[in-house]
Amino acid sequence: MGKRILVQRRGRGSPTFRASTHKRVAPSRYPPQVKPLLQGIVKDLVHDPGRGAPLAEISVEELGTFYMVAVEGLSVGDAIQIGKNAAVRTGNVLPLGEIPAGTMVCNIEKQPGDGGKLVRSSGTYAIVLDHTPQGTIVKLPSG
Prior knowledge:
mainly beta
C-alpha cells in the first residue's frame, strides 16, 4: 500500500505543515518613492517564522522604518540606496531597466509598486539577460 506522498500530507493542514502566521514580524515591502534617491541604513537582520530568508530592518530618515527581504552579503550597519539613481551594489533597490545585463537580482516586482513578488526565497536569484525596447529579459530560477 505505501504511505501518502508529502503533497497529500501537506494538504491536510496538520500542525506539522501549517505556517505560524501569527508570529510574523512584518510584511516585506518597498517604501513609497517620495524622492529620486533615498538613503537608508540596515538596523537589524530579523528571523521571520514561515519565511526562508531573513528580513532586513531598514531605517530611512524621511519614511521611518520598513522591512525587506535581506540579500546575501547584506549586514547590519550597511548603507543602502533606493531609487532610479542608486548605485548597482548589494542591497540597493533600483528599477530593473537600470540594472546592467549579467547582474544577479532578487525580489522583483511584477507591477511597479507591488512590493516585490518574484525570486524572494533564500538563496534564489534571477539574472538580467538583456534590455529590449519592449522590456527587460530576466532568467528566473525556474529557467
